[in-house]
Amino acid sequence: SALPPPRTRIFKIIVIGDSGVGKTCLTYRFCAGKFPEKTEATIGVDFRERLVEIDGEKIKIQLWDTAGQERFRKSMVQHYYRNVHAVVFVYDVTNAASFRSLPTWIEECKQHALGSEVPRILVGNKCDLQDCIQVDTDLAQQFADSQAMPLFETSAKNPNSHGDGNYHNSDHVEAIL
Ligand code: GDP
Ligand code: MG
């Protein structure tokens, strides 16, 4: 008789970075395929899911999004950092402060046993705002190299507005897996 279908594996990926960098919009784009009409500030922890097929296997990608607000994070923090398969660090290319925050976020992850032994990627978001760039690619690439992370510059709003126009959000996930 036929074997039961294998259970869908779940990959939990956490999305981290300063408030306003576009974490919610990126996860929405990845899971819903579009830019959200409007976003409310994330309250506590939220996750969105998308089924992807990689090497013929269906995998459920679970993207965990947080509010930057400390008062929410404190109580949720243990839950959030448990059983994580990969980490996405996000900064906003039009906001230098969000780039300067990255070491703090990276350190916090390390304190929860999510250092370089876990797949990690760096995402510079809002590349559609080409006239407002504050973090240039070379600097970001240098930092990414120093942390042994691949760098992806992108835009949740208009993924095709950057680079060669061949950007696909799924590249991020495939880079991780
Ligand atoms: P979060 O706090 O990191 O979750 O950030 P949100 O996803 O809520 O986005 C914060 C603001 O940035 C919102 O006004 C979004 O519309 C805007 N935003 C997010 N991603 C992009 C992007 O790729 N391009 C532009 N131009 N705006 C974006
Ligand atoms: Mg948010």
TrEMBL record:
Annotated membrane topology: Lipid-anchor
One Gene Ontology term of the molecular function aspect: G protein activity
Key word Hydrolase present: yes
Keywords for the protein's UniProt record, in alphabetical order: GTP-binding, Hydrolase, Lipoprotein, Membrane, Methylation, Nucleotide-binding, Prenylation
UniProt GO BP: central nervous system projection neuron axonogenesis; commissural neuron axon guidance; Rab protein signal transduction
Catalytic activity: GTP + H2O = GDP + phosphate + H(+)
Domain of life: Eukaryota
Cellular component terms per the entry's GO annotation: Golgi apparatus
Keyword hit for Ribosomal protein: no
EC number: 3.6.5.2
Localization annotation: Endomembrane system
EC class: hydrolase
Cofactor (UniProt): Mg(2+)
Sequence similarity: Belongs to the small GTPase superfamily. Rab family.
Name of the protein described by the UniProt record: small monomeric GTPase
Residues of the full protein shown: 10 to 186 of 233
